[in-house]
Amino acid sequence: MKVDIVLKDKRKYLDLLLLADEQEDMIAKYLERGELFALYEGDLKGICVVTKEEEDIYELKNIAIYEIYQGQGYGKKLVEYIFEYYRDRCKTMYVGTGDSPNIISFYISCGFYISHRIENFFIDNYDHPMFECGKQLVDMIYLRKDFENVKND
Fold first, then answer.
1. pLDDT tens column, 42-96
2. How many domains does the chain have?
3. Range of the domain at 83
4. What are phi and psi for residue 33, nearest 5 degrees?
5. What's the CA gap between 90 and 53, in Å, rounded?
C-alpha cells in the first residue's frame, strides 16, 4: 500500500470525489485549499481531502473509495494514514457526514466520536435532495478525533 500527496491536477480525481460529495461546486470550496491523498495498492483505490480549518484543527472533507474496493479496509487504512500524517500538527480532526448509521459507525470504528450537528445542512447547501441508504440527508453530523501528541514549535 502506498499513499501519495497530490499537489497538481486535483480535479482529475473528480470522479472519486463525487462519490462522497455529489455536488461539484461544494467540492470546489475545499479542493484547492486542501491536501489530497491518493491510496494505491497496485492501482488507485481511493482518495481523501483534508483541510486546515484553524490552528491545530483540521477537517477530513472527503474520503472516497472506488465502489469495487469498498468494504475491503481501504477506507480505514486511509484514515489511519491521515491520523499518522497529522498526528504532530493536529489537535483535533473533524469529519462531517450525513445522518447515515453505516457511515457514522465507520468513522466511530476509526476513532472518531460524535461531536455536534448542523441542522438542515444538506437542504440549505445542496441544489438537490441527497439520499444515503434510501434516507434523505438533512442534518450534517460532525464527528471528531482528538490527538494528544501535538508538538508546539
1. 999 999 999 999 999 999 999 999 999 999 999 999 999 999 999 999 999 999 9
2. 1
3. 2-146
4. -85, -10
5. 11
With a pLDDT cut of 90, the percent of the chain lying above it is: 75
Nearest Cα to Cα of residue 115 among 76, 73, 65, 60? 60
Closest CA to 19 of 40, 45, 51, 43: 45
CB 43 within 8 A of CB 86: no
According to DSSP, the β-strands at 140-146 and 113-118 are antiparallel
* Rounded Cα gap, residues 42 and 123, in angstroms: 39
Residue 76: strand, helix, or coil = helix
Please tell me whether residue 42 adopts helix, strand or coil conformation: coil
Residue 56 lies in a domain: yes
Q: What is the spatial distance between Cα 56 and Cα 152, in angstroms, rounded to a whole number?
A: 10
Residue 151 counted as domain residue: no
Distances (CA, A) of 124 to 40, 52, 103, 120: 35, 23, 21, 6
CA separation for the pair 66, 75 (Å, rounded): 10
Note the pTM of the prediction, 2 decimals.
0.90
Q: How far apart are CA 132 and CA 22, in angstroms?
A: 11
